[in-house]
Amino acid sequence: MSQIANYILSLGSTVFVPIVLIIVGLVFGLGLLKSIKAAITVGVGLLGLNLVIGIISNQLTPAVKLMVSRFGLHMSVIDVGSGTAAGVAFATAVGALIIPTTIILNVLLLIIGATKTMNIDVFNYSHYALTGSVVYLISGNLLLGMIAACFHCTFSLLSADYTAKRVQNIMGVEGISIPQGYASSTVPLYALLDKLYDKIPFFKNKNMDIKFVQKKFGMVGDPVIIGIVLGIIFGLLAGYNFKDASNLVIAVTGIMILFPRMIKIIVEGLLDISDAAKNFFNTRFKGKEFYIGLDSAVTLGHPTTMTIGILLIPITLLIAAILPGNTVLPLADLAFMPFFICMATILHKGDMLRTLVSSIINIIIVLLIASFFSPYFTALAISGKFNLASGSKVSALYIGNVFDFVITQLSRLGYIGIIVLLLLSVAGVIFVRKKALNE
Asked: Which residues sit opposite 291 in a β-bridge?
């Protein structure tokens, strides 16, 4: 089973996702050539996203390390990043079983009408694997660990259903949702904060999105200008010379320009499959909706996400330095801050001020949960034969996940906790269905 999982993961999202989309297109009657064209177009868009993400990693990470060094940040736990965390999660017993288990669970939930999302984002099943692995580590019970992983998957699907319409409006394509294990876990917080902002006079009845900024401040609100300004700020904070700072400015501005372009390519590929799915369900299931669950990366093209995400990097370093109870030194995941806040942009409809405030609140929670999980994550990394220096303590902002925290804490109660999680799942299904009826 682990060999099959490893082979699937080795294909990479740019290959595996198109394969799944070809199958989906054929099931929906799109036709072979049209399905191949649509799927490969999405694969090319994902390839472009990966290239831009590579720019983020290669250009921003060295600047982040210099900032950490210049400002003398010293914490006992090192953030090893989402890539390493996913590797640790998949290297466990739960990780070996997570792909077939998640697919079977997802199909069953679709059949009984508990969700509308089919999550094809296989690479991010690692979030569910990590939750289950921590529960297995704590309890010594593999079954309990698998059940915990399944609940994380269920909550992610419900969050995806809840935000699907807003995601579709911002993306400009019907029939998609975001069940990615981390992004979905931020939805309850951002949704509650959005309701709260509606009651605060300073936030109420305002929509400070990128269009508002451009209208108010002209070219200052242009993504290119924003990229230049952010690049200069980063260069100054990192202490770069003119050559390095100039390259950083071009890289940051490039990120602001290229992400939306790549998202457009993905959307172009998804449109035919989305239309085919809509026709399929209208014909055979009286208009029943079905969403294709994608990685949260497809939402990163929004200028609010990229602007606030990059701005959040130095803010996160500052918070980490002064936050009581935090032991994690943000490092490897810092360059990927836009992933941590993408659903804030969705739920706040692109409002930059709301997204900034919500992101700061969320990153405080992320740091505290990542600190809490560091002993468990370190133990999992050691058991997975990851090369850690003696006495090292590791974690990742990636695991600062509210669903992960709630599920693992309730699982400490054994099967009583499982009953509570089941009741929460049922309540979630009822709530999401009620919301759908009111839309």
From this structure: 117
Task: Give the whole-number percent of the chain exceeding pLDDT 90.
Answer: 32
Please state, in angstroms and rounded to a whole number, the distance separating the CA atoms of residues 382 and 403.
Answer: 24
Assign 395 to helix, strand or coil.
Answer: strand
Domain extents in the chain: 2-49+60-185+267-300+316-341+369-438
The pair of structure tokens assigned to 113 is 């009408």
Q: What is the pLDDT of residue 137?
A: 92
Q: Where are the alpha helices (DSSP H) in 173-209?
A: 187-197
pTM: 0.83
What 288-292 contacts at long range (C-beta under 8 Å, 24+ apart), as own/partner pairs, is 289/116, 289/175, 290/110, 290/116, 290/118, 290/175, 291/116, 291/117, 291/118, 291/160, 291/161, 291/164, 291/175, 291/176, 291/177, 292/21, 292/24, 292/117, 292/118, 292/120, 292/175, 292/176, 292/177
| Segment 370-382, tens digit of pLDDT | 999 999 988 988 8
pLDDT digits (tens, 9 = 90+) for 332-375: 788 788 889 999 999 998 888 899 999 999 999 999 999 999 99
Count other C-beta atoms under 10 Å from residue 412's C-beta. Answer: 12
Alpha-carbon torsion (183, 86, 64, 47), positive or negative: negative
Q: In whole angstroms, how far apart are CA 319 and each of 55, 312, 360?
A: 25, 10, 9
The two tokens of residue 275 are: 């239309």
Tokens of 234: 């980063």
What is the per-residue pLDDT across 66-86, written as a single tens digit (0 to 9) for each? Answer: 877 777 777 778 888 887 888
> Which tokens belong to 399?
């695991």
Q: Which of 203, 269, 241, 253 is nearest to 30 (CA)?
A: 269
